[in-house]
Design a protein that fits this description.
mainly alpha; 7 helices; 0% strand
């Protein structure tokens, strides 16, 4: 990917993370935001909304770091296990392990009653549904069925790791942020997975155009030299 297209890719991910977090923040934390509106404190409302957008930017950066780490991991995995088929089976096993880990070690300690389980279960269902939808769309766009497993792995395993990292050390309003931080990470990861080929293709086109311009300049310079 060229630097120019990477910059476009980076800022588009930032925008998605900021917008999703801002919108989700108002919905999930309406009691917090609504209190400012009820009191007529518009400045405080704008400041709190700006903080949500900044938080979304931060989640976007975490998601992008995770994505490029996964691209490296994917190549290393194929190299270690020699075949894509075996690497896909390893990824399926890791997907199952991460789902079990989320339920037993992440959700269960904080789930005190049925409503808590309903809350965490809903988030897990959202994560899995988003992963399946994104993976199926990836297969449709590429026409390659073998990308299904790797797409599911990225959307479930890598997203879960980024989600856990984002929540580390946060104790206040933990349930609110468990829900809030999931949405921008899922949205940015889905966009990255689906949009990267478009940016790569655009980069290839830019390189070809640049090469053509160089050839034209070279021919023009040679023509000037011959006339001289």
């Amino acid at each position: 990917m060229t630097i120019r297209n990477w910059i476009k890719f980076f800022f588009m991910c930032l925008i998605i993370g900021g917008v999703i977090t801002g919108a989700a923040g108002i919905i999930i934390r309406w009691n917090f935001f609504g209190s400012y509106l009820a009191a007529g404190e518009i400045g405080e409302f704008i400041a709190a909304f700006a903080w949500m957008i900044f938080l979304g930017f931060t989640m976007s950066v975490i998601a992008q770091a995770g994505f490029f780490a996964y691209l490296t991991l994917h190549q290393v995995g194929i190299g270690i296990f020699k075949t894509l088929t075996l690497w896909n089976w390893v990824q399926v096993l890791l997907i199952l392990i991460v789902i079990v880990d989320l339920v037993i070690f992440r959700f269960a300690p904080d789930a005190q009653n049925f409503s808590d389980w309903l809350f965490y279960g809903g988030l897990l269902i959202f994560l899995i549904f988003a992963a399946i939808s994104t993976a199926m769309k990836k297969v449709q766009l590429t026409g390659k069925k073998h990308v299904l497993i790797s797409s599911l792995f990225f959307m479930i395993v890598i997203t879960s790791l980024e989600w856990i990292i984002a929540l580390m050390g946060r104790q206040e309003n933990i349930d609110t942020y468990v829900a809030l931080l999931l949405f921008p990470i899922v949205a940015v990861n889905a966009y990255q997975l689906l949009a990267l080929p478009k940016y790569n293709a655009k980069s290839d086109e830019d390189r070809k155009k640049l090469e053509e311009r160089r050839k034209m300049r070279k021919l023009a310079n040679e023509g000037k030299s011959s006339k001289a």
